[in-house]
Amino acid sequence: MNHPLVRFLLVGLFAVGLGAAPAEAQNIIKIGNLVDLTGPTSDQGKDIAQGRTDAVQYFNERGGVNGKKLELVSVEYGFQPPRAVAAYKKFIEDDKVLLVLGYGTPDTEALRPYITKDKVPYISGSYSGHLTDPRQTPYNFPGGIDYTSQMRIFMNYVKETWKDTSRKPRVAFIYADNAYGRAPIESGRNYAKEAGVDLVDEEIIPTVLTDATSQLLTMQKKDPDFAYINTNTQWVPVVLKDSYKLGLKTKYVVNNYGIDERTPKLAGEAAEGVMGIQDVAYWGENVPGMKTLRSRSRACASSTRGGSLRRSRTRARTIGRPTARDWSW
């Protein structure tokens, strides 16, 4: 869901370009920080929260922004939109933050009218396509490729690599029963027709998933060549392992928030051949900023934060051209 260092590089721009908040009179820039540490996306949420904390520390150690220190005002909301709305009101009315680091699709959608009315910069962890329209959400700033574009990447990949001239490729969608999971589905249906692929099945899975057998058995009857999974990293291995047990031959492609270094560890041999769409540089690649990230990671290597630093900071830079990539497990 988030790009910690990109977000905080943007902090500098906002701090320079916007009017001063009350806290700035005390040489402090307050930033609202919405995190999920206990809900269904907490596996990633803990890494994201740690990445933001470490990024603030990094900049404060270097003098802050224009001589002002950054202060995170954090609220844990358990991936529950009503709690996110309450937290946002606290950020604005009580804490007088300059901007807010948001989180997921359900809460960002719930907060959209408030953000627009208050004209508060909101750095969103959601890449829902309709939240990227500046005419509708001028103060919402997503940090990556929207989910609709990722769905298009998937279907373009299917079409471009399909070799059987006797029929069109068959695809299926597997997505979580929440706003994040559903975000690209309608556009995906329309684009399937445009791309010339047959959408033969859609399977909805619970936000918290323990078994996907029933959905996969239904999907198996339609025999898709490819399936696109749109849920979070900790639940994708459930789909992959159950598919492996059933002996399905379907090839899986996973969206950006559904795949990372944990996937092969959790899914084991069921992850073989699975592909993921990413809008970030991979850890250790030769891109601007990676040396800084690795240096910070080494500095924390002796603590329990090492893994979260690596995972959260792997999401720190966007790559120039998004592609579907076969991970080397």
Q: What is the topology?
A:
Blueprint: H1 4-17, E1 28-35, H2 42-61, E2 69-76, H3 81-95, E3 99-101, H4 105-118, E4 122-124, E5 140-142, H5 147-161, E6 170-176, H6 179-182, H7 185-195, E7 198-205, H8 213-222, E8 226-230, H9 236-246, E9 251-254, H10 262-267, E10 275-280, H11 290-299, H12 306-314, E11 318-326
Parallel strand pairs: 1-2, 1-3, 3-4, 4-5, 6-7, 6-8, 8-9, 9-10
Antiparallel strand pairs: 10-11
Helix pairs in contact: 2-12, 3-4, 5-7, 11-12
Structural overview:
This protein is 42% helix and 19% strand. With 329 residues, the protein is α/β, with parallel strands linked by helices. It has 2 domains: 4-142, Response regulator (Rossmann fold, 3-Layer(aba) Sandwich), CATH 3.40.50.2300; 147-326, Response regulator (Rossmann fold, 3-Layer(aba) Sandwich). The protein has a 6-stranded mixed sheet with strand order 7-6-8-9-10-11, sandwiched between helices. Strands 2-1-3-4-5 form a 5-stranded parallel sheet, sandwiched between helices. Helix 3 (81-95) packs parallel to helix 4 (105-118) and helix 5 (147-161) runs parallel beside helix 7. It is globular, with a radius of gyration of 20 Å. The protein starts with a helix and ends with a strand.
